């Protein structure tokens, strides 16, 4: 091949066949870096040049370094990009034993069979066979196609009887096959024996709690603390806690601490389907305390809505969204237990709905002014109706005395001071450059 060298508007022809060694190729490349090559001829001539160079230098027998030099040389002299040269070299290696020109694809009997011999009737027969046997594996279908032609003398299966298993799978992916055969698999629900999948049914009684977890964000791939919100479904008595992580070593002791802070006996424990609560360790703990464990149902977003709403109105409002390192889980937990939870339940008002049946007979919620109460006030009303079972040593009088020890304003101010001191103790890690 003669390559045109364009140097200062002069065109010089060069016979590259005189380069016979890798060293000469390497010297040529370093001497011609400033020379622009313009290969003459069409693609067929370029293909021939690449084939001759690869054959003359025995490309398959060269080491990695020498192959790289040859590829750079072919890129330089053919005018193709490195990616195109690599594709042509790969095709040359695949076709050279069959003596096929570089610009043509390697003939394949199976490909020719699929493209030319397989007809629409054959596709219909394959679809019929797959439907009847409910999509068994390829080798089994290939064997059935062979039996249909060989043992049952059905001439319609003559072409399909010679079909290989690999091309049978390719035929299943073809547009003609897919147009006649589509199979859909329904999403299978997660089946776990732990917990009962239902909404909690407190029937107006206190003691059926709902629980959810809030993550305090990541920073540079490092996890923050986790807040745990546990709230009673009827009285809205709420307990907040904080853990370093959701492993059993951190979560189980905190769950016990949460249940100890409720003044009444817990009868139901409801969560979503997260593995932090739906596991054998938590189930064993609840079984020991004789607490019914329930979990949310699919397509019923209201099953755990109360706990999720408390995450927004309480946790995010007071703790924010910024990352808090896991090392501060213990002081946050102390703040919750000593200051925050007493303020939530004894001094912070909540809205309790009144159910009203409208003209269409549907129950709707209405929030009236007289329904605004603190969780303690709501709990005392339930106690008057006999719908609360207090723990031993706790009475309505002891709870009243605790609430009267300071006013609502003083309790809120004390909580805010404690929260400022808590946040002032946080030392945020420096961001990596």
- How many distinct helices? 16
Which percent bin holds the helix content?
A: 40-55%
Main beta-sheet strand count, sense and barrel state:
6 strands, mixed
Rounded to the nearest angstrom, the distance between the terminal CA atoms is 55 Å
Q: Provide mean pLDDT, rounded.
A: 83
Please tell me what the overall shape is: elongated
Strand content: 5-15%
At CATH level 3, the topology of the largest domain is Nucleotidyltransferase, domain 5
Strand order of the largest sheet: 4-11-10-5-8-9
What can you see in these coordinates?
- Helix content is 45%, strand content 15%.
- The strands form 5 sheets. A 6-stranded mixed β-sheet has the order 4-11-10-5-8-9, with helices on both faces.
- It is elongated.
- It folds into 3 domains: 2-98, no CATH class; 109-180, no CATH class; 205-351 and 408-424, 2-Layer Sandwich (Nucleotidyltransferase, domain 5), CATH 3.30.420.
- With 433 residues, it is an alpha+beta fold.
Helix and strand arrangement:
Layout: E1 2-7, E2 10-15, H1 22-31, E3 36-39, H2 43-56, H3 64-78, H4 82-95, H5 109-117, H6 120-132, H7 138-150, H8 165-172, H9 175-180, E4 196-197, E5 208-215, E6 218-219, E7 222-223, E8 226-232, E9 238-243, H10 248-260, E10 268-271, H11 280-288, E11 292-295, H12 305-319, H13 329-346, E12 350-351, E13 354-357, E14 363-366, E15 372-373, H14 375-384, H15 396-404, H16 408-424
Helix pairs in contact: 1-3, 7-8, 13-16
